[in-house]
Structure of Cysteine desulfurase:
Amino acid sequence: MSSGAGQLDVARVRGLFPGLSDGLVHTDGPGGALVPESVVRAVSQAMRVPIADRGGVFASSARAEQLVSGARTAVADLVGAVPAGVVLGPNVTSLTYAVARALGKHWRRGDEIVVSRLDHDANIRPWLQIADEIGMVVRWAEVDIETGELPDWQYDELLTDRTRLVAVTAASNAIGTCPDVTAIGLRAHRAGALVYVDAAHAAPHMLLDITQLEADFVALSAYKWGGPHVGAVVAHPGLLGELRPDKLVPAPDRVPDRFEQGSPPYELYAGVAASVDHLAALCPETPGTRRERLAVSLSAVGRYEDALFDRLDRALRSMAHVQVLGSPQYRTPTLSFTLPRMRPRQVARELARRGVCAWDGDFYSRELFDAIGANEDGGAVRLGLMHYNTVDEVDHVIDSVAALR
Ligand SMILES: Cc1ncc(COP(=O)(O)O)c(C=O)c1O
């Protein structure tokens, strides 16, 4: 593709990823994306100079402060929020447990939560466990097993005046489905419930906007878009101010610091900022603020990935020996498939032998795969595309799956 404004020059983009020099086809992006050189450099540069903890009056402490604020500002730009609402932490799972604990202090026996069968377990189990401790009612939003959609109309029946929280994914990391989170959020807000959106899988593929999503919390993990292993939960600072997470007494009580336990990985925070800069610079001539550039580049990423994915999806669906799970209308470039006489682990091994990196299993979408019945046979094989994948790679994957007939 040419490198005009708003278009992805994939040859140039691939040159940014040292990991691609292994010559393999990386369709394992949903489990964690490859890391651009700019991120590697930012992390190593941060470690070449002294970094102390924050709160001191000397230069290396000020440097730590800058790294925290750089990472918060970058994540805020990614979801259209303010840096003061960005809580940084180890990953989505730990942060969701922490938020669930903090929210649970406000909930009572008989209160209700709504979780979805489409979600990664990280946006189910923390809520189920806190609900169980308190004696809350859990309601489930179900997936249409044929299409893989999560219909939003069902929330009319699931929400009551006792609903305290709706937890829902912006995109399924297993089958790519993008539910209408805005429609679900509007319903939840009308019922007076909070909305916790897991955007870990969605973030590398689309421009997210916390307000437009009708989300109160958005959970993210930088390693899903080419950053280091750092997670974030984004919320309105006012909402964070109402919550009392477990914390040490001498640790800062201000928001969002109140939610961040212990000394953070400052050097990785440099990589978080660099990874958002990487996304924002994918269409290099684009002018404007980082948020404006993200809007252009992620829209180019979306168009590019959609075309690639369409090729992959159509080809696999045309193969009599392949069963692609679900057929959602709006989706990320991610699918899962099974073959009738081969277990997913065996298929993944065969693909690996042909130079294709692909995950097998349930991808922690345990509830979804149990509902589909896929877990009895070892789950499925997942193929997920990223902005560094190419048509040639997709054709190689197609040929490799065809060869397993
Ligand atoms: C949709 C989704 N949610 C949550 C998670 C868990 O993220 P983390 O590894 O940051 O805890 C993942 C990771 O695979 C994911 O894909």
Notes: The chain has a mean pLDDT of 97. The longest helix spans residues 290-317. The longest strand covers residues 163-169.
